[in-house]
Amino acid sequence: MEVDDLRVHYRGLHAFPSPWPKQENAVSVLYVRLPTAFLVERGADRVHALALELAAELPFNSGYVDFALCSDGFRLGEALNLIRPRYPGVHLALDRARLHMNTCVEGVHWMNFLGEPVLGKLGGVPGLRAHLALPGITLQEMSGERVLITLGDQPEAGDVEAGQTLPLHRALARLLEPHLYRSDMDDLYPTTEEILRWERRFLD
């Protein structure tokens, strides 16, 4: 498959534990970015199928697919000003793989891939079904104690001025709150109160 502006970034850990304390929460990460034109031209169903096909081969703790505004760490504040407060459904992302997540979940998105240990802490798929029995939320079991949680038929920017409140995102955020990743100085420069508040936009 050829896609213009495709970006793939992988950062992997060594087989042995790192002796450096700052690496204690590091994980191997695969970052794949498609241009918005791919979604527009091929449709949300094609993006969904492609992501599911890729994830099926990966031993993940978590992962996601969503609209994203990408920036390097130094310009995240500028990028945030472009989407806040009008478009809470747009994910503010670094332009590279993020290493220091441990097994935390990086936010709430259109497609949310979830594996162990967080899935087990939530009661597995039965626990998810009990808490997320809302129209528009789809749970798809995957092999190896993994699941895909999809919020709606396509990614939504969540235009506040158009009255879009993204209730499905808020429901999943409340469930995942104890397990959500919080930015820190190890992989976000600068860490600002505005960015930390943005990460809680579906909770506050």
Question: Could you please describe the fold and organization of this structure?
Answer:
This protein is of the alpha+beta class and 204 residues long. It has helices spanning 36-42, 44-55, 76-83, 118-121, 124-131, 167-176, 193-199; strands spanning 7-11, 29-33, 62-65, 68-71, 91-94, 111-114, 137-142, 146-151. The strands form three sheets. Strands 3-6-8-7 form a four-stranded antiparallel sheet, sandwiched between helices. The chain has a two-stranded antiparallel ribbon with strand order 1-2. It has a two-stranded parallel ribbon with strand order 4-5. The model has no long low-confidence stretch (mean pLDDT 86).
Total domain modules:
1
**Widest sheet, order of strands:** 3-6-8-7
Q: What is the multimeric organization of the chains shown?
A: single chain
Could you describe the largest sheet, including whether it forms a barrel? 4 strands, antiparallel
| DSSP E strands, number | 8
In short:
This protein is an alpha+beta fold and about 200 residues long.
Q: Strands, helices and their partners?
A:
Blueprint: E1 7-11, E2 29-33, H1 36-42, H2 44-55, E3 62-65, E4 68-71, H3 76-83, E5 91-94, E6 111-114, H4 118-121, H5 124-131, E7 137-142, E8 146-151, H6 167-176, H7 193-199
Parallel strand pairs: 4-5
Antiparallel strand pairs: 1-2, 3-6, 6-8, 7-8
Helix pairs in contact: 1-2
Protein name: DUF3396 domain-containing protein
Pfam families: TsiV (PF11876)
InterPro entries: TsiV (IPR021815)
